[in-house]
Amino acid sequence: MLDLKRLRTEPETVAELLKKKGHDFDVAAFSALEEKRKALQVDTESLQNERNTKSRNIGNAKAAGEDIAPLLAEVDDLKATLQKKEVELDVIVGELETILHGVPNIPDERVPEGADEESNQEIRTWGKPRSFDFEAKDHIELGEARGGLDFETAVKITGSRFVVMQGEVAKLHRALVQFMLDVHTTEHGYTEVNVPNMVNAESAFGTGQLPKFADDLFELKDDRGFYLIPTAEVPVTNIVRDEIVEADALPMKFACHSPCFRSEAGSYGKDTRGMIRQHQFEKVELVQLVKPEQSKQAHEDLTHHAEVILQKLELPYRVVILCGGDLGFSAELTYDIEVWVPGQDTFREISSCSNFGDFQARRMQARWRNPNTGKPELIHTVNGSGLAVGRTLIAVLENYQNADGSVTVPLALQPYMGGASTILFP
RNA sequence: GGAGAGGUGGCCGAGUGGUUGAAGGCGCGCCCCUGCUAAGGGCGUAUAGGUUAACUCUUAUCGAGGGUUCGAAUCCCUCCCUCUCCGCCA
Questions:
Q1: A349 noted as active-site residue
Q2: Would you list the domain boundaries of chain A?
Q3: CA A386, C1' B31: Å apart?
Q4: What CATH class does A117-423 carry?
Q5: Which superfamily, per CATH, for A26-101?
Q6: A83 CB below 7 A from strand B atoms
Q7: Distance (Å, rounded) from C-alpha A125 to C-alpha A319?
Q8: Does the annotation mark A86 as catalytic?
Q9: DSSP assignment of A42-71, as one string?
Q10: pLDDT (tens digit, 9 = 90+) per residue, A26-52?
């Protein structure tokens, strides 16, 4: 959520900045509503003031034992007039809120222009894609061969875009989770957290999934209105919702392993094969809650923390900066980390690291007490995947495959695989 | 699931219809006194808006949302949450 004050004082500037994100902010409509709101609010409040004053007089008169009948007559029609104004004001305020809730965050000046991922800019690469002396298979072929990855059974159990993992593949998946958590908690200073995998609407609003992206979420069909989390970002960031934390509590750094549930609305026909795009996948998420002046550096650090995982696994990757059109609703700046996937002969997103500035904090009312001012001020939120586990599994299987269909276990993972250096599918 | 109690400011805690945005305490900030690692005293200390050049003035907020009333932290209704006991349960 943007600062309403800024939107009021310089709507044209904001509209101009939002163009980079492909958002058309209707300044005329907004300003017209604002005019109405202002007039109505002044009217309403002066009526409220009148009511308060007269009510106080009635109280005083009553206490003094005077006749209050004439005073009551005075306020007779005040109530109805006031109620009418209040309803009108509520409607206008509601309309303004709807607009405000739908306005995306303003992109950082470093964000390149562009409509879609074609305009994303590569900022660095690491490692060299391996050249195979045999025909490299993709993870589907590797995994299905002997049942390590079983998509058909998952279709029976649930439906498309799910997978059943078995044997060494399931173990490798688990090993990746443990490995990532260990690196982040012991080497990067994150605190491990385990959080609810369902959230209420307030939390989903706080991080920006609601109200605009309800279709991307799985909503539980029960009158409590819970949602399955699309990422641990939602519950973890909301730890500080409606809180005022002391300055020395910041930065807070959390690492969280969780399943992620996405309806993938609008992605029909994309990545339908394999486990690139699933309705359920697991992820180790990194979240940092920081003072405003720390967020830019925290974002760089966090991205690096995610990269370290790929470096330790010796998987080639590149980092791209997302252009305006590809940038998410709540983010001001996002780096995507893309891992080399031999089966597709391309880089695929495995992590998305974003700085949200105060955008999520304002929605959540997450604040810290600034000792310099003594006042509560909004914090900044930063997060990123460290990493998406399913996609990391794909990358390991495909990059480490051998001609005989076995897969070499990356050195860093061997302690988590009982020392095994190679796996065969079941 | 059943029975009961309760949700008030950064924290604790008064307050059952009329200057209560809210006593008192703690914490915090500034100052004074004391001159020694103690204590005492004074003042200040919620949030979000509107209005104003500013001072001022003003509105809302006592879990959330409705209602009654000239007037609601206080009365009524619905919901959420916490605690205690019982039941159930991985």
A1: yes
A2: 26-101, 117-423
A3: 52
A4: alpha beta
A5: Serine-tRNA synthetase, tRNA binding domain (1.10.287.40)
A6: no
A7: 6
A8: no
A9: HHHHHHHHHHHHHHHHHHHHHHTT---HHH
A10: 999 888 888 888 888 888 888 888 888
Q: What letter would DSSP give residue A364?
A: H
- Identify nearest nucleotide to residue A62 by CA to C1′ distance: B18
The model's pTM is 0.92
A285 noted as active-site residue: no
Q: How far apart are CA A117 and CA A322, in angstroms?
A: 7
Question: What token pair was written down for A122?
Answer: 């590569």
Query: What is the signed CA dihedral for A94, A95, A96, A98, rounded to 10 degrees?
Result: 90
How many Å does it take to go from CA A80 to C1' B64?
Answer: 25
H helices of A196-331, in order, are 201-206, 233-237, 295-312
pLDDT above 70 as % of chain A: 100
Q: Please check whether residue A96 is in contact with residue A37, taking contact to mean a CB–CB distance below 8 angstroms.
A: yes
Amino acid in the structure at residue A408: T
Best CA proximity match to A258, nearest among A233, A221, A277: A233
* Whether A244 CB is under 7 Å from strand B: yes
